[in-house]
Amino acid sequence: MDKNGYFETSFVIYISDAKLEGLYSMFFHNCFNFLHHSSAERKAVDFTILIEEKNSDSYLSAGEMPLPALYQMLSILFFLSGCFWVFILKKNGSEQVFRIHWIMAALVFLKSLSLFFHGVNYNKIATNGIHMESWAVLYYITHLLKGGLLFFTIVLIGSGWAFVKHVLSSNEKKVFMVVLPLQVISNVAYIILEESEQGEATHNFWKEVFVLIDLICCGAIMLPVVWSIRHLQDAQHTDGKAAVSLEKLKLFRHFYVMVVCYVYFTRIIVYLLRITVPFQYEWLDSMFKEVATLVFFVMTGYKFRPASNNPYFVVATDDDDEEVLIGSSSIREQVTNRKAYKIDDYEDEEETVVLFSKSDEISHDLD
Fold first, then answer.
1. Is residue 105 within 8 Å of 85, Cβ to Cβ?
2. Which one, 183, 312, 326, 334, has least CB within 10 Å?
3. CB 306: neighbour CB atoms within 10 A?
4. Which long-range contacts (CB under 8 A, 24 or more apart) does 240-246 make?
5. In a structure prediction context, what are the per-residue pLDDT tens digits for the chain, which is 367 residues long?
């Protein structure tokens, strides 16, 4: 230490034995402040530190080294899934394809683009030790757009927009007004966490903000699904189309379970995995999170694909009559509803039940 109170030092840690491999962290403690508890006696410290951390030919930690290849591979999988979805939409024609289907396609391609930029960013870090600002900015922009569009799409599907009705209720509009701004704040908090270090004073604050807002958004997107289920339960007994309402009710109940499982797995199970696996397997939490997202996208697309291929509404019809069976496994009952048609009048009175019919009569506003 010189006469002005400045101190300079350097040291090198070289791991030459496999037994010494592990997760190393560096912390700075101001020992003077540990001895002086009074705020008036404590002294602030200003210093500059240069750290070079390198594993063989990569600047990434052992748990992050597989991430560049992982993100690139997942980006390709999402892109191929998006291409297949667009092929399905084109094959079914415009009569059974709604705007929500194209929004779902945009979400998949945006997710693919976000993963691609994320993988390139990690590759630059592995090569140069720091990320290039251009790739980082592109990733943050696509990540922010993807996060907002994901919750936007889930709320639209959960509210039954285009599938059950074509107008959003006032309550569903309020959900949009709450969720979308919160998603912007959540993504801003995520970016700050990515760009800051654990030792910074604001890091823990933004981490708590990110977790809290993310959980609020996950809870809010469940409300439109619950309202749609309640709406279909009421419609099942009032509008005379019990079979149609029953099948749609099954569909939205399945979607509700899917959303709950997706939120629970990506927010809780992945976190538990992150804090329990050994340091060299830290990349597994990212892999499981992205694979769970891919499975959720595929299952949602399968459940809400255009009506011509949807198994929920395969209604048996004859030339003389139409029979619909409504089964209830819990009480072991079957109710048979029949409609008789005259052969001469059949063409004029024929009814076809379609999941995404633009003239669907179950178009009530949810309260």
1. yes
2. 334
3. 19
4. 241/353, 241/361, 241/362, 242/324, 242/326, 242/335, 242/337, 243/315, 243/324, 243/326, 243/337, 243/353, 244/313, 244/353, 244/362, 245/362, 246/326
5. 666 767 777 878 888 777 777 777 777 777 777 776 666 677 777 778 788 888 878 888 888 999 999 999 999 999 999 999 999 988 887 777 888 889 999 999 999 999 999 999 999 999 988 888 899 999 999 999 998 899 888 888 877 766 556 667 777 778 878 888 888 888 888 888 888 777 677 778 888 888 888 888 888 888 888 887 777 777 666 655 555 556 677 777 888 889 889 988 988 899 888 889 888 898 999 999 999 999 999 999 988 888 654 543 333 343 333 333 333 333 333 333 333 343 444 344 333 333 334 444 343 443 4
Distances (CA, A) of 316 to 5, 36, 212, 234: 89, 83, 49, 25
Query: Is residue 94 helix, strand or coil?
Result: coil
| Buried/exposed code over 202-222 (b: 16+ C-beta within 10 A; e: otherwise) | eeeebbebbeebbeebbebbb
With CA atoms as reference, report the closest residue to 195 among 177, 215, 210.
Answer: 210
The CA distances from residue 72 to 59, 190, 247, in Å, are 18, 21, 39
The DSSP output letter for 313 is G
Amino acid at 121: N
- 13: nearest Cα among 1, 29, 31, 26: 26
The full DSSP string for 166-186 is: SS--HHHHHHHHHHHHHHHHH
Alpha carbon of residue 309 to chain centroid: 25
d(CA 165, CA 252): 14
For 314-335, the DSSP string reads: ---B-SSEEEEEEEETTTTEEE
Helix 133-159 / helix 170-195 crossing angle, nearest 10 deg: 160
Q: Tokens standing for 99?
A: 């705007």
Residues 6+ apart with CB under 8 A from 145: 110
